[in-house]
């Protein structure tokens, strides 16, 4: 191969030399046959040879680099490049071979270099090994035909050759098709670089601009405001960080409160008020750190120890009492709340179980509240076993608030506020001040108690036979004279208690807490506690401590 | 500070590019799945809008967060002669509370995107990182599981290398010489300068992907 290549090169150079030498002399020069010249295609061959040379040297450089840097070469890649080089070389040599018949080795000078090799190159006798090879191959070929007459031998051989030729041609065809499919170089000439047509190039340009703009400056990635609804199913890495609500953007002041939270609580605190209220309720409930009553744990809602003190010092209760919202405000709040219920629902799925309980309770409360509000301020329009009239009665004054099934509690919340506001100012402020100090967790356990205490207000006696120790508070509250609670249907009370608990929180809180999520949270609890922390605080305490 | 160049490549050639990069870099690729949240502060809070990016690496078993601030690019005659973009960049690992913190500080979500692809980290004159990724956008806020590519047929190639004010010229030259290795497949340029695709990309990709047809001579 190398020899042939050398010969080809020599041929070319000799050709060129001859042609160069010829012009000055007017003597008839020996020119190659035009056909041969064309077939030879000197220029093209030269170009290809040079490019091949470059490719090989590049590969060698790469190998060198590999050796220097001690990295493992990528063999597949190298094999690929080798195959390219191989192919190209074969093409060039093939081209030359076609015309090499026209040339003969013609060493001009015999010098020390050539002397030894010339006889071998010029001899036509095969080398001994080659001769043996040749003979054995010939025998193989003519295996069955030695005895036949020569012409038939020739015939057979010819047919064999034809068959082989046909097979080769079909193989060549397949190869050519594959080459075309993969844009390999054809055997004629150097590879033509594929150019993109204009339309394609434009499209790509357009796409490229889109992509670059998106990456560098966020063009095309900004969701319009109305589409910025948080997906209910947040990806795992965001689930703990974002509330299900409208606002990554709004970050409540409750963040301060968060920091006291233990991690298990979901970040419900961020978000709109409604959400916040409910969410924070869950969080508050779950909070165990920083709470003076360290006994409360994340699951404390259900397990709250019957702490006798109804957290009179809770700021929540105080604020609740102070800030009875106007009916209109309350209504709006509850409407908001309802809108967020959807999200709450979805969010609940993500909460841990304990918090789910809480959240569910809150959710129900909020639902109730919203319904209650929507149906009209302080109008308990839900059909309730207790009877509608009772509800209305309740609304009128601090009086007979019938605790309807859950729903009534919505109204209760409102009424409670009123009740609370009717308390003496001194008592209110006292409660308020007292409430400032306590932590939420303390207040939370009393939620159920406060709820039940609300029901007490309307003079219903709570048959607080509930499983919940918190409810036992309510039973104590029942006898609170200040509230002038009459005995109500104990059975219904039991029913209502659960719902009361749930609903109670949100309603009052919403009423009072508009601006500040913290307040909302506190109010929520405070509301519940407020009932307990009614001016008859001492009394309640006693009762609770029983 | 960092030196950065960007380029694009058609998605069909990404595998070939990976083979090429594997051969050049000598390391194995790392998978890349990063949720990038770009936060902008409220203009009322300051004279200049400030932008900060939170990157959440979702490929780790525990998502890790990084906060990154990209500053302005170097300007001037010297900068124009350098073929890479040199800009200030500050990066730090943070806890997952970063998002909440920035929200509390008043930063609002401006846009977010999800990069999915692979990256190579290696040392060649400088600590170079090459990322080849499909840039995806989310149709719903934070819905990374439902992200769709911004340009399905084209992926982004980014070559970055951290630098300091003392050595940025060396880093820049290291990055640009590395980029020449990728010449058969793609052209890289400063972010914002469009390059188009390279006409030899198809052929180069084919040769890289092929097993090689060996013809014996």
UniProtKB/TrEMBL annotation, chain A:
Organism lineage string: Eukaryota, Viridiplantae, Streptophyta, Embryophyta, Tracheophyta
Protein's recorded name: Mediator of RNA polymerase II transcription subunit 8
Superkingdom per UniProt: Eukaryota
From TrEMBL, chain B:
Keyword Nucleus: yes
Gene Ontology biological process terms in this record: regulation of transcription by RNA polymerase II
Membrane-spanning segments: none
Main location group: nucleus
UniProt keyword list: Nucleus, Transcription, Transcription regulation
Subcellular location(s) of the protein: Nucleus
GO molecular function, one term: transcription coregulator activity
GO cellular component terms, A-Z: mediator complex
Superkingdom: Eukaryota
Nucleotidyltransferase recorded as keyword: no
Signal peptide: none
InterPro entries: Mediator_Med18
Sequence similarity: Belongs to the Mediator complex subunit 18 family.
Xref: PANTHER family: MEDIATOR OF RNA POLYMERASE II TRANSCRIPTION SUBUNIT 18 (PTHR13321:SF2), MEDIATOR OF RNA POLYMERASE II TRANSCRIPTION, SUBUNIT 18 (PTHR13321)
Protein name as it appears in the record: Mediator of RNA polymerase II transcription subunit 18
């Amino acid at each position: 191969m190398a020899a042939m290549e050398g010969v080809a090169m020599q041929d070319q150079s000799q050709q060129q030399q001859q042609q160069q030498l010829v012009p000055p002399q007017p003597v008839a020069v020996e020119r190659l046959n035009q056909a041969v010249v064309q077939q030879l295609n000197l220029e093209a061959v030269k170009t290809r040879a040079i490019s091949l040379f470059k490719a090989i040297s590049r590969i060698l450089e790469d190998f060198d680099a590999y050796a220097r840097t001690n990295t493992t070469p990528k063999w597949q890649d190298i094999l690929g490049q080798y195959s390219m080089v191989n192919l190209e070389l074969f093409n060039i040599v093939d081209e030359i071979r076609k015309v090499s018949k026209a040339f003969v080795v013609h060493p001009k000078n015999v010098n020390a270099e050539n002397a030894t090799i010339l006889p071998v190159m010029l001899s036509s006798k095969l080398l001994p090994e080659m001769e043996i090879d040749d003979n054995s191959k010939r025998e193989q070929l003519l295996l069955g035909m030695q005895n036949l007459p020569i012409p038939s031998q020739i015939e057979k051989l010819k047919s064999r050759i034809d068959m082989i030729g046909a097979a080769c041609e079909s193989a060549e065809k397949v190869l050519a098709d594959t080459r075309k499919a993969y844009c390999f170089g054809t055997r004629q000439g150097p590879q033509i670089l594929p150019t993109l047509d204009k339309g394609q190039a434009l499209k790509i340009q357009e796409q490229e601009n889109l992509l670059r703009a998106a990456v560098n400056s966020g063009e095309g990635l900004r969701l319009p405001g109305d589409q910025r609804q948080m997906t209910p199913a947040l990806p795992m890495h965001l689930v703990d960080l974002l509330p299900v609500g409208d606002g990554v953007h709004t970050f409540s002041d409750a963040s301060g409160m968060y920091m006291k939270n233990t991690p298990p609580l979901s970040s419900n605190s961020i978000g709109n008020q409604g959400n916040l209220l409910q969410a924070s309720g869950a969080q508050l409930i779950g909070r165990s750190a920083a709470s003076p009553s360290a006994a409360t744990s994340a699951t404390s809602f259900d397990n709250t120890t019957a702490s006798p003190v109804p957290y009179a010092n809770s700021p929540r209760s105080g604020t609740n009492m102070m800030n009875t919202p106007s009916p209109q405000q309350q209504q709006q709040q509850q409407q908001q709340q309802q809108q967020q219920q959807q999200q709450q629902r979805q969010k609940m799925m993500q909460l841990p179980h304990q918090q789910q309980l809480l959240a569910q309770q809150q959710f129900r409360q909020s639902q109730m509240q919203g319904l209650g509000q929507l149906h009209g301020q302080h109008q308990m329009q839900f059909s309730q076993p207790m009877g509608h009239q009772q509800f209305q009665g309740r609304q009128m004054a601090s009086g007979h608030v019938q605790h309807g099934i859950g729903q009534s509690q919505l109204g209760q919340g409102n009424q409670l506020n009123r009740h609370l506001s009717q308390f003496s100012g001194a008592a209110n402020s006292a409660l308020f001040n007292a409430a400032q100090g306590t932590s939420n967790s303390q207040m939370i356990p009393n939620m159920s108690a406060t709820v039940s205490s609300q029901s007490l207000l309307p003079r219903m006696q709570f048959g607080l036979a509930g499983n919940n120790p918190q409810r036992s508070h309510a039973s104590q509250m029942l006898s609170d004279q200040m509230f002038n609670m009459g005995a109500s249907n104990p059975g219904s009370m039991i029913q209502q208690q659960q719902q009361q608990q749930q609903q109670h929180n949100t309603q009052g809180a919403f009423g009072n807490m508009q601006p500040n999520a913290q307040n909302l949270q506190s109010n929520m609890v405070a509301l519940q506690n407020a009932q307990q922390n009614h001016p008859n605080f001492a009394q309640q305490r006693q009762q609770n401590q029983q | 500070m960092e030196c950065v160049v960007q380029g694009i490549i058609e998605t069909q050639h990404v595998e070939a590019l990976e083979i090429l990069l594997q051969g050049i870099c000598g390391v194995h690729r790392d998978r890349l799945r990063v949720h990038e949240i770009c936060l902008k502060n409220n203009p009322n809070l300051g004279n200049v809008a400030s932008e900060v990016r939170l990157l959440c690496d979702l490929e780790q078993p525990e998502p890790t967060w990084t906060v990154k601030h990209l500053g302005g690019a170097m300007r001037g005659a010297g900068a124009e002669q350098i073929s890479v973009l040199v800009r200030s960049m500050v990066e730090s690992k943070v806890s997952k509370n970063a998002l909440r913190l920035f929200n509390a500080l008043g930063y609002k979500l401006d846009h977010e995107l999800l990069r999915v692809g692979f990256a190579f980290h290696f040392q060649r004159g400088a600590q170079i990182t090459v990322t080849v990724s499909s840039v995806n956008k989310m149709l719903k806020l934070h819905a990374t599981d439902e992200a769709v590519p911004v340009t399905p047929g084209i992926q982004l190639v980014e070559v970055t290398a951290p630098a300091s004010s003392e050595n940025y010229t060396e880093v820049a030259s290291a990055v640009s010489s590395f980029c020449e290795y990728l010449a058969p497949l793609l052209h890289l340029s400063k972010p914002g300068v469009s390059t188009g695709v390279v006409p030899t990309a198809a052929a180069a990709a084919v040769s890289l992907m092929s097993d090689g047809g060996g013809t014996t001579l």
